[in-house]
């Protein structure tokens, strides 16, 4: 299965969403790994879920944390990439990468402050795989998408997805998983509408 653009499904909380998304060709699965976050994923559950999945990158979604706490998280959660919202933490990671000329995992920047993006994006772009913006920022992103790899995050209808792909250079979409109705019982409608329209023929 292949999709017409890059898709990340974040806030994954269960194996059902993970397997469905991976089977549909989703490139990245995101997990909330900080205990105070909604949809927090314990390390043991994360390891169980990811052991069943292949062919997709595992992303740790970090809002704000210290350098030391991040190192502790990375020890418990083997991953392919980090999605960072905290610009100070992101700057520390990039400075460390510049010193060693290496970054062992990909970085996604979940942009909350457009002014900081304007100040930092050009210098940081070498280290950032994707810049993640809210769908409400689409007007801000339209011109920037010609230059930077941008994902739009939010809930999308099939019509919205087609319009964005046809009219912009946005690289793809960041969707969200949802809770199971009961263990093993899952409604995929919220993902299916978008993923099925993105399937290649």
Automatic annotation (TrEMBL):
SUPFAM superfamilies: Ribulose-phoshate binding barrel. InterPro entries: Aldolase_TIM, RibuloseP-bd_barrel. This is Phosphoribosylanthranilate isomerase. It comes from Raineya orbicola.
